[in-house]
C-alpha cells in the first residue's frame, strides 16, 4: 500500500534570513578572515576570500545568522566602493574607530563632534546655514546644543524639559520635578572659532568621522636636549650607579650623575693646552632629566640588574587563576624536599629486618642528619599520592614514589593507626617535575614510559611552575615541623640559637610515623583555599560520587613488574632460572631451552614480589612463576632476612626443606608486619651491583628441597621415601639390620633419571639407610633434554 502525504498541510518552506542585507560591495570578516560576497545560490551565500586566493565557500544563511548573533561576523557595508561613491560618513571609516582614541585626543574628538552635531541639527531644522556669518550669530545656541551631546547621562529634569518643549507635558509638571543638586553651574562647551567650525563641518561632510580626529599627541620635539656625548656619559653613570645589586635610589643616582659630570668638566679644564684654547664643557643634567632617563629603561633589565633573574621573573610573571584541572589524575606534580629536621639515621625495628651492611648502604648509620622527601600530589584534589624518605635524592626514590602513586597505601595508614584511610591511587596523565637528577635517571624515565605517562619538565629555578607540591612542602614547614624536635629551620637567621643537633631525638621510624599520620589525618582533612573551602578528602569523594573518575585504571601486577622491576641478564638451565635462590620455571621456558642457540635471556625482576618474573622470549615478555607458590608477594628484604636466619642456624648446610624455609619466611613477615612504617616509607631499593654481591654471598650453595614424605611410585605396589642429604650439623646414627627378601634393587627408570653428579640410590626399603659419601637428591619432574648438534 502506498501512502500519499496530505499536501494541503505542507506549505512552502520559508527562506532563512540572516538579519542583514548582503551586497557585492560589502566585506564580511568571519572569525577574523575577510570574505567578499559573490551571490546567492538558493538559501546559501557564496563567499570568496578577500585576497582572491582560494576556493569559493558556501555558507547557509542560517549559519550566517547564528554567527551574526554570536558576534563572530563583522559586516563592512560598501567596503569595495570607490571613495567618491561611498557615503560621506563611511568614507575612510573602515580604518578609523573612535574607541582607538584615548586621553586628551578622545576629549578633543568628542568636543568637535558635539559642535558639528549641533550645527547639523540646526541646519536640518532650517535655523542656520553652515557659513561663517550665521555660525557666529548662533554661537550661544550651538554651545547649548553641543553641551547636551557631551552629557554622559540625562537627568529626569532634562527628559521632562525635552517633553515639554515638544508640547507633550503641561507646565505644572515641571514645578514638581526635583532640581539637580550642586553648587555653581558648570562652564559650558568651549566653542572653536566660527571660521574653523565652518571648515570642520565641510571636512566632516566630505570625509566623515576621521576628519574630527587630530594627531596632536604626536607633535612636539621628542629628542633629548643633551648632546650625544652627554647622553653617553649619563647612561654610563646610571649603569654603574643605579643598575647594580646595591639598589641605590634615584636620589642617590642623581648625586652620582652630577658628581660624574663635574669630574668630567674638571678633567677637560685641566687638560686644555693653553689659556686661549676653548674647552667644550658638558651640561650637567638636572634631577628630572635623570629621572626620565631611568624611567625609560627596560623594566626587565632593571629588575635583573638590581634584584637578580629569579626575583625579576617573579615580579613580571603574569598573575592569573592558574591551571584549570578538571579531573583527578589530569596533572600530578612530584618534587624533592630537604626536610628541615635533624634526626637520628637509625630505626630499631629496621635493625631486625636489614643487615648491618645494608643499613649502612641506606645511610642508616646512626648519625644525625637531614632526610630528603620525594612526594607527589594530585593538582585536582590536593591529595598526597605518594612519598618516600631517602638520605640522598636518587632515581630509585623517585621511582618508588611513583609506585606509591599507582598503588593502594592503606597498609601504611594502618601501620600508624590513622583515623582515616589512604586508598587514593591513580595513573597520572601528566607528571610535572623539575630537572633534578633523580627525575632524569633512567630508572624513573623508563617507569614513566612503561606506564604511558607524559612527563613535563618545568623550568628550573621557578618553583611556581609546580605550585601545588611546593605549597604542600610549605604547609609542612608551617604545620608539621614546629611539632617536632630537632628542627633546623630554612636558614641560620631563622634558626637563631635553637640547638637543632642537641635536640635531635627522632629516629627514622619516628619521622616516617609523623609524616604519614600528618598527611592522612591532618592535611587531607584541612579546608583548602584552592578547593573553595573543601578538604582534599571531600574534593576526592565529590569527584568520585559525580563520576569524575581518572581516565585509566590502575596498572595490573605484570605492568608494575615491567615498569618498576630491574632488568638483568640470566642463563636458562634445565632447572629454569634461579635468582636469589628462588627457582622459576614454566612451559615456555622449557621450550626455549630445547631450542638451539644461546641460553642468555633478559629478565625483569621486582624486588617487592618474588612470586614471578618476566622473561623476554621470542620478542615478547613472558611471565614465569616461581616453582614454589609461597614466594608470591614476598619482599626481597624478607627473603634475605630469612636466608640469614637459616645460615645463622647452620652455616654449612646447603639443602633446606621447604617447611623450614617457609616457616622462616612466615616468622620474618610477622616481624615486619609489626607495622614498621619506615619499612614502607623508606627507599630500600638495592642496586644491581649490590644484588650480585648478595647473591654470590648468600645463595651460591643454597637450594630448597621438598619435605620427606611418602608418595606414589606409579609403577609398583607400595610407596617409597625419597632420600635427602644428611644434616652435617646433626650427629649420624648408624643402624644395621638383617637383609631380607624384600630388599630389591631400585627401578631402572629411577636409576636412569638420577642426576649424573649423585652417588648410587639408596634401597627403597622405607627404613633409615646408612650414610653415604654422596647422598641421592630428590627426584624431580622430567625436563626434556636440549638436543645436541649430533642429534640433528
Highlighted features:
alpha+beta; 5-stranded mixed beta sheet; 36% helix; 14% strand
Topology:
Blueprint: E1 27-30, E2 33-41, E3 44-49, E4 57-60, H1 61-69, E5 73-76, H2 103-124, H3 132-137, H4 139-150, H5 156-165, H6 171-175, H7 194-207, H8 228-241, H9 250-270, H10 287-295, H11 299-307, H12 309-316, E6 332-344, H13 348-351, H14 356-361, E7 368-378, E8 384-390, H15 395-405, H16 410-415, E9 430-433, H17 437-440, H18 442-450, E10 454-457, H19 467-479, H20 492-495, H21 508-522, H22 536-545, H23 557-564, E11 566-571, E12 577-579, E13 582-584, H24 587-594, E14 600-605, E15 612-617, E16 620-625, H25 636-649, E17 655-657, H26 658-672, H27 677-681, H28 688-698, E18 703-705, E19 710-712, E20 719-721, H29 748-752
Parallel strand pairs: 6-9, 9-10, 17-18
Antiparallel strand pairs: 1-2, 1-5, 2-3, 3-4, 6-7, 7-8, 11-14, 12-13, 14-15, 15-16, 19-20
